[in-house]
């Protein structure tokens, strides 16, 4: 399941140090903004009338601050791509968590004190709570996450090195070199390049979420998992999006969008579609800030299309084909994941 949003993504593997230094400068400013916003939202309580405008103002800050920061720092938009991507993600996290607070779906215990609320608002990966108290990590989890970070970085570097010479489209390059054309080539390119694009996005996001988990663990909290092998274990669109792919975004969208809408009586298919609409908005925001040349609307088409797929699955489950709709045989599920 490849968002097909282009392969020009912020890189953590650039040999030039300038993008990394610019990212650190942007993230330092972002951290200060997140701290201030956490304090403000704590003081505002759960008032929708106050929290929603505050969340909107917070989300607009990257657009306001980017130009002055680059002018002061002396960097370029290319240098700022990685930092802008990470900052856009961090500001979006704050936005969604403020919305959660206004609709009453914040995890119990996250707002128990000002210190805990600041930690929750600034965490890149959700900490777990039970009975209103933060869970402590099991022994060895920090060490295992550090090992995972190293392994994921090595895998990402190797994969990028392998496909970058082909313009990140290795299957298309091979078909062209071998003289393969027509419908067969088109099918091979769709499957092969979708698979390589999906693996690249998965490795990149897994690297970032693992780093976020390490920061949470280092502060004595137990973070949620980032992924659960979505590409090669999912047997339906719902399983892919609902239980395996980017569980951090999944959890926030459920709390800030799906649960409030479903709790207000909106039918589950419509609440699902609205949640994918919120996901589309988040990705539009993220890519507009960090990807030069991004064509606005691309993310919306993709994510709304995926929402329609989940709605179609729900409708199909009401037919005699419901067993196939709820969990297709694994080979069919994997084939769908790398072509949809």
Quick structural overview:
By secondary structure, this protein is an all-alpha fold. It has helices at residues 18-44, 48-73, 81-103, 114-122, 141-163, 170-178, 182-217, 230-233, 237-244, 247-263, 268-290, 298-316, 322-326, 330-337, and strands at 129-130, 133-134. 70% of the residues lie in helices and 1% in strands.
Query: Strand-and-helix sequence, N→C?
Result: HHHHEEHHHHHHHHHH
Structural class: mainly alpha
Radius of gyration: 21 Å
Strand content: under 5%
Helix content: 55-70%
Oligomer: single chain
| Mean model confidence by pLDDT | 86
* Biggest β-sheet description: 2 strands, antiparallel
> Biggest sheet, strands in spatial order?
1-2
- Shape, principal axes of CA atoms: globular
Unreliable sequence segments: 1-15
Structural key phrases:
single chain; 340 residues; mainly alpha; two-stranded antiparallel sheet; 14 helices; 2 strands; 1% strand; globular; disordered N terminus
Write the layout of secondary structure elements.
Elements: H1 18-44, H2 48-73, H3 81-103, H4 114-122, E1 129-130, E2 133-134, H5 141-163, H6 170-178, H7 182-217, H8 230-233, H9 237-244, H10 247-263, H11 268-290, H12 298-316, H13 322-326, H14 330-337
Antiparallel strand pairs: 1-2
Helix pairs in contact: 1-2, 1-3, 1-4, 2-3, 3-10, 3-11, 5-7, 6-7, 10-11, 11-12
Plain-language structure description:
By secondary structure, the protein is mainly alpha-helical. The protein is 70% helix and 1% strand. It contains 14 helices and 2 strands, in the order H-H-H-H-E-E-H-H-H-H-H-H-H-H-H-H. The protein has a two-stranded antiparallel ribbon with strand order 1-2. Helix 1 runs antiparallel to helix 4 and helix 3 packs antiparallel against helix 11. The relative contact order is 0.13.
């Amino acid at each position: 399941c490849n968002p097909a949003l282009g392969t020009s993504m912020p890189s953590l593997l650039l040999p030039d140090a300038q993008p990394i230094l610019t990212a650190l400068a942007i993230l330092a400013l972002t951290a200060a903004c997140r701290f201030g916003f956490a304090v403000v939202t704590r003081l505002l309580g759960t008032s929708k009338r106050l929290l929603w405008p505050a969340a909107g103002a917070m989300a607009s800050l990257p657009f306001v601050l980017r130009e002055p920061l680059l002018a002061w720092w002396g960097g370029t938009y290319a240098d700022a791509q990685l930092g802008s991507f990470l900052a856009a993600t961090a500001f979006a996290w704050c936005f969604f968590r403020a919305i959660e607070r206004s609709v009453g779906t914040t995890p119990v215990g996250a707002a128990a004190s000002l210190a805990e609320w600041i930690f929750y608002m600034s965490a890149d990966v959700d900490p777990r709570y039970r009975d209103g108290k933060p869970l402590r990590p099991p022994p060895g989890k920090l060490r295992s996450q550090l090992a995972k970070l190293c392994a994921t970085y090595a895998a990402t570097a190797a994969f990028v090195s392998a496909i970058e010479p082909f313009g990140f489209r290795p299957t298309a390059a091979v078909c062209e070199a071998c003289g393969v054309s027509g419908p067969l080539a088109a099918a091979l390119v769709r499957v092969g390049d979708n698979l390589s694009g999906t693996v690249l996005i998965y490795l990149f996001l897994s690297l970032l979420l693992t780093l976020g988990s390490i920061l949470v663990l280092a502060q004595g909290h137990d973070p949620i998992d980032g992924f659960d092998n979505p590409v090669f274990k999912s047997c339906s669109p719902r399983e892919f999006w609902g239980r395996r792919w980017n569980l951090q975004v999944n959890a926030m969208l459920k709390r800030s969008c799906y649960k409030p809408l479903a709790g207000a009586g909106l039918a589950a298919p419509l609440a699902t579609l609205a949640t994918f609409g919120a996901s589309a908005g988040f990705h539009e925001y993220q890519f507009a800030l960090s990807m030069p040349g991004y064509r606005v609307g691309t993310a919306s088409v993709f994510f709304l299309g995926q929402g329609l797929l989940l709605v179609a699955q729900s409708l199909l489950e009401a037919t005699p084909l419901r067993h196939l709709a709820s969990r297709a045989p694994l080979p069919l599920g994997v084939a769908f994941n790398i072509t949809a």
